[in-house]
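Fill in residues.
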């Protein structure tokens, strides 16, 4: 329930080739930086404007003057980057995606139509097609003891080999306002999380996370 094929529609991102030959989504986190630089140099100049070093922005995207965009970064067609957004680098913002006011991104892929619209932090994470993070919801990407992140699904443990892994959101996931997704959280397609939740581990496809021991499957 947490492989790339289980979670993500690769036709909905410019980063699809990056996932080739991989099994789990978090395996691509180490390669985002280099992929952006390689892909950016191939993007057509009539569609994408290069701004500074290794930053490519689609000419029909809307980027507010107060937004900061670090290198490397690709902002795809129709995306909107709003007031005081802080894109630290190694970020792909998909088609028609929204990066909202005071939202911070770092080492992430936002698939097409993703919304991170208000006061979100998204680091070392992948957000699938049409995933939505409510206001104030964040991904926590480093454990408090700084040990390597492990994906936990009941008694099953999958080693990521990485110190920094945020969250993997499958297609059409909904995260409630002011929720925290702890390191290594995985949410299956169409899963949803109640507001002010503290989520850890795997939430299955169509799961509704109400509390740690209260996850129901949407009918």
């Amino acid at each position: 329930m947490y492989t790339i094929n289980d979670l993500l529609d690769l036709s909905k991102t410019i980063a699809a080739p990056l996932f080739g030959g991989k099994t789990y989504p978090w395996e691509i986190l180490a390669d985002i930086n280099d992929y952006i630089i390689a892909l950016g140099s191939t993007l057509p100049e009539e569609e994408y404007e290069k701004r500074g070093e290794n930053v490519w922005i689609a000419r029909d995207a809307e980027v507010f003057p107060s937004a900061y965009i670090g290198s490397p970064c690709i902002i795809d067609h129709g995306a909107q980057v709003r007031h005081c957004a802080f894109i630290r680098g190694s970020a792909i913002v998909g088609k028609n995606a929204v990066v909202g006011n005071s939202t911070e991104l770092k080492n992430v892929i936002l698939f097409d139509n993703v919304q991170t619209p208000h006061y979100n932090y998204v680091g070392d994470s992948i957000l699938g097609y049409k995933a939505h993070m409510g206001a104030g919801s964040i991904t926590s990407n480093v454990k408090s003891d700084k040990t390597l992140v492990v994906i936990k699904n009941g008694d099953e443990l999958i080693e990521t080999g990485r110190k920094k892994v945020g969250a993997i959101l499958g297609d059409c996931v909904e995260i409630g306002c002011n929720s925290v997704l702890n390191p290594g959280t995985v949410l299956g397609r169409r899963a949803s999380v109640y507001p002010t939740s503290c989520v850890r581990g795997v939430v299955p496809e169509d799961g509704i996370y109400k509390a740690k021991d209260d996850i129901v499957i949407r009918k």
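The first helix runs from residue 4 to 7.
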